[in-house]
Every structure is written in C-alpha cells, then in structure tokens.
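Why do we care about 3D structure at all? Because function follows from shape, and shape follows, mostly, from sequence. That is the central idea of this module. The next example makes it concrete: a single protein chain, its amino acid sequence, and then its structure expressed as tokens.
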Amino acid sequence: MPYFRAFAFVSAMAFFVILVAPLQALARRRDWPLQYEIQKFFCRTMCRIIGIDVIPRGALSGAPPRFVVANHVSWTDILAIASLTPLLFLAKSEVATWPVLGFLARLQGTIFVERTHRQKIPSVNFALAEQLRAGRDIVVFAEGTSSSGAGVLKFNASHFAMLSDLARGPSALRATVVPAAFAYSPRGLENGENAEALDVGWYGDMSFVPHLWSLMKRGGARCHVFFGDGLDPAAFHDRKELAAAAQNRVEGLLARSSAGGGGLL
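And the structure:
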C-alpha cells in the first residue's frame, strides 16, 4: 500500500505541475474564480493519496477578509485546511526554494517572510494588508515553526500589528482573527481524542522524503481542524495582547480536542 501511495503521489504531482499549473497561473493572472477550485481540488487529491482524512470542527467565523491563526504541526496542515476553503498562506522564505512544493506555493500566491531578518517584517505586513483589503482570507502559523503538536509554542506578534492599523486607519477595515487548531489521530478514533498518540509532525531537522514515506506507511491519519470564535482586532490595546488572546483560543481548542469533546470556544 505505501508503494502504491508513493506512485500515486509522484504521478499526481507530475500531472498538476505539467498540465494544471499553467491553467492555474492563467486563472490567477486573470483573477478567475477557477483558481480557488483548482487549489481545493489539488489539496483534496493530495490528502486522499497520502491517506489523510480531514475532519472540520466548526467553520470560519465572520465574513472575508479573515486572518486565520493556527498552531503548526506539519506541512500537511496546509493541505488539510486548504482542502476546505480557498486560502492564502504566509510561509518562511525557505519554502520557496523547495523542489516542486516551493513552485506550487509560489503558484498559489504564498507570501514569504525571512524570519531571521526582522527589518523585512514591515514589507511583509504591507503585503498581507493588501491581500486583506482585496478580500482574501490568510492563514498564519503564528508559532513561526512546526512542532510535535503536543502543545502550542508562543505566538509571534509581529504580523498582528497591521491588523490593529487596518482597524483604526482612515479607511477602517476589520479583518476578523479566526483561531484554528490542528490535531491528528489514527483512523478509527472520533472527535480527535488521544490525538497525541499520533505524531505526524515535521519539525527539527527532519528531511521531507523520509517524513512523507513515514506518513504513507502509517496507513492513514485523521486531521481534525478546529475553528474557534472570531476576535475583533479593534477590541485589543496592541498586537501582543491580540496575539496572546489568539494563542489562548488555540490552546483551548486543542485542550477540548484532547478531552474528546470536539467543541468550540
């Protein structure tokens, strides 16, 4: 079975890169709605091939534009949440150089940030603000890195600053901050209980291919995507307070998933 998954993964990647990518590039250049359907179709296809069942708990609250902040367990988080709804992502600059995946990330309009060069944060925030003004929903993994998923790392408040500026500016735009949490469990478990029993995290110095092969050999996993109630940036004094509130919501979502409740905050 893992060999079949591996063959299907390579074949699907080749199909999308050679045949679908040119159409997606054209759709994005012309701003056709088709671009969003292609993104969802690609992510759903890859999830099926890898063996990841995506289980949404709740939905994105509020109306676009929304600023989705989440914990980060693995690169599969991106496939999982984008299989549910069209989204734009903020990613570390290294992703742009990855073979194939980097090309696909650039094709989707991913905004890249060099985390070691903080002086470039304002320009990245400007790009994020422009996308929000255009009505796009953006996903930011606020921990700044992936982890085992056992807990939530401290949220980086750098990209929350422009949300307050947008909300209080002369042409005020309130982008709802939507907390989201990812929890993985073996197939056969409901509501994300005992999600800590399955570590699909891609973190530290793990190499991509061995990690992908490990996922395929597991025989599948469930990715539970929990959505919490939205936060209004204008209700907070500064970016750090807003980031802390979002982190608290994400931690609450994960706590409920571990308890097996599957509820929302």
